[in-house]
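User: Please predict the structure of the protein below. I'd like the answer in structure-token form so I can feed it into my own downstream comparison script.

Assistant: Understood. Taking the following sequence of 277 residues as input:
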Amino acid sequence: MRTALTILVFATVVGGSFGSAGEAAAARDSEQLFADLRNDQFDVRKNAAEELSRNAGQFWDRLKKMSEADADPDVRTQALNIMAAPAQEYFKSAWESAKKEAEGFEKELQEQRKKYEAATKEFAEKGSAPAAEREAAEKKLAETTRAWEAVQAGMKKKRNEFKVKIARCGWLTTENLIIPPAELPGWTPAKLPIEKRMQLKVSFNFEDAKFKDALEFVESSIFIKIEVAPNFSDNVPNINLSITDMSADLALDWMLKLCGATKKLSAEGDRIIIDSP
């Protein structure tokens, strides 16, 4: 009994010592990493920055202070780059996820097309078959036709949505946005200044799209309210325009050029107004 108690006490004391020692070692390691940001050797600075980037949230306040007030401009730049790393990694992951999602949609689309084509072929081959077999083939064709038509109905819009999401996430990975890691899961580009949102990359393929529908699509893509002036004519041509990885500002200019319209920011600077020239 005494032996067990001794072991328990020893383990508690030693365990506590190990815990304190571990925390102290971690603190020393982090201090060394911050010191290494000022090292004369490039590789040492690079390794320190990469290590701090993986735990930027833990040192956010210190990094923010360094980025704003450190006497060394190189250290200020490094602090900013370290703070930008979590957002870059987050949006890179979102970009890769969006691409996989788009690939999955295209795969599903092809599978649905194959089912429709197989059902069409089967129905054609049942021309001289017994009535029951023809009825079964006809029913199967009707079901696959409805499914195929449903997919086709939203196909263009869905493809455009994927293109915008992929382009937007790709652009966000390059912008060195400073966003605290804890805020990233709920963050949207709506939090960017409107001038920055106008530079969001968009991709779409409008084929005989109604002007209103095209505007609504761009509006939802760049998180900016787009309003049409009261005196703007509704008699505008449908939009036929394909854009890939272009700034929303320029893409909107091209779209408006096709229907003789212009754009401007509202007096409050919080939305876009579409008007006649």
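That's the full token string. The radius of gyration is 29 Å.
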